[in-house]
DNA sequence: ATGAATTATGGTCAAATGACCATAATTTCG
DNA sequence: CGAAATTATGGTCATTTGACCATAATTCAT
């Protein structure tokens, strides 16, 4: 059941079995239907989430109502809205399932308690935020500097596994280009 | 001399005077001419930097050689290239002075030593990375969702103090638009 | 103060992109 | 399986944006 999470912790951290058991016990498993939201924009992000299987996305709405995707979180990843979670303030972004997904959630109080009892979990948390920070910088730079075509090629290179799981309009919303442009790029590439 | 840094620490943290003295003693002051680089792209980021006064920028080069700016660091801010600093790997980005600047630098070993001795400094570091993370997400979302004009207006609203200190081509390089587009936007706004 | 460098603006044209619409293909789920 | 929804593609046209160039204004450093 939570097997994926167990092995994630066992292989990716220095947590011992007792710690892992504690962490797992504090989690609540949850199933999400395709399209179902875990966090609605405007709500407060009260949980930390681990995706056991499936695929979530974090997205927000532009001034004109259009969707723009900050992040795809597939299995064996975490999903939170950091600002909302950290400050317990209304979230600007929505977290929802792209595919039917199985996740584990911890309430913030529960997770904070775990962090106090298990120093190694703090180490993991910091690793995660560091990685996320570095990834965001890379992404920001790519968004600033690359052409639409380069962005798409980067995406394909970086997330070959996600490609067949995502509708093109979501990839476009992630890259910051229109669906039309994305279709054009793919068309041009086929002809080469 | 390092007064700006002292008051930054005293008013922004819970560090006590002894700690502050230790931190200041480990720092090396440095002057940078306009345009002078603190870290060249390709080099390893070996220092943590605090800007006492002046203004730095962190930028990288696109595939075509064009410059794109990730971040402006004015006085009372920190500047590092996180990935390069953390892993001591070659930096993709350059840190250079926009204005003549006075900075304080700590070598990584020295700063790590301070972190071990002064828990409160770790608290500060985590705050900084959290803030930076949240800012980057916001920026990314704005870059994805906003029009060129909205981006410029956001910038003006967010950094009114930086506006008169930056040449327009740098603001354009920060916003991810061409200088021409930025000029057009400003022209249109004047006429309203 | 002054010459050199940088910066800001504008014109013109081509290219890239998006909005809107229609349609076909595919997928989803009861 | 079959109907409904979603997804992918393409056409057309208007708009935005960028590249390239010239010029004026401003700022910089000695």
TrEMBL record, chains A, B:
User: Which positions fall inside the Cyclic nucleotide-binding domain?
Assistant: 11-115
- A Pfam family cross-referenced in the UniProt record is cNMP_binding
Q: Where is the signal peptide?
A: none
Would you say which domain of life the source belongs to? Bacteria
Record-given protein name: Cyclic nucleotide-binding protein
Give the species: Niastella yeongjuensis
């Amino acid at each position: 059941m939570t097997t994926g999470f167990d092995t994630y912790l066992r292989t990716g951290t220095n947590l011992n079995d007792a710690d892992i058991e504690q962490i797992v016990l504090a989690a609540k498993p949850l199933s999400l239907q395709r399209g179902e939201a875990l966090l609605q924009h405007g709500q407060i992000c009260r949980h930390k989430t681990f995706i056991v299987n499936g695929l979530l996305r974090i997205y927000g709405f532009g001034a004109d109502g259009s969707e723009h995707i900050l992040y795809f979180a597939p299995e064996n990843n975490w999903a939170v809205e950091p600002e909302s979670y950290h400050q317990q303030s209304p979230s600007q972004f929505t977290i929802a399932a792209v595919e039917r997904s199985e996740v584990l959630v911890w309430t913030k109080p529960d997770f904070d308690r775990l962090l106090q009892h298990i120093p190694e979990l703090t180490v993991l948390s910091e690793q995660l935020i560091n990685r996320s920070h570095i990834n965001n910088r890379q992404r920001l730079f790519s968004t600033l500097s690359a052409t639409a075509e380069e962005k798409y090629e980067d995406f394909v290179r970086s997330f070959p596994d996600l490609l067949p799981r995502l509708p093109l309009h979501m990839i476009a919303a992630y890259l910051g280009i229109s669906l039309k442009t994305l279709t054009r790029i793919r068309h041009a590439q086929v002809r080469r």
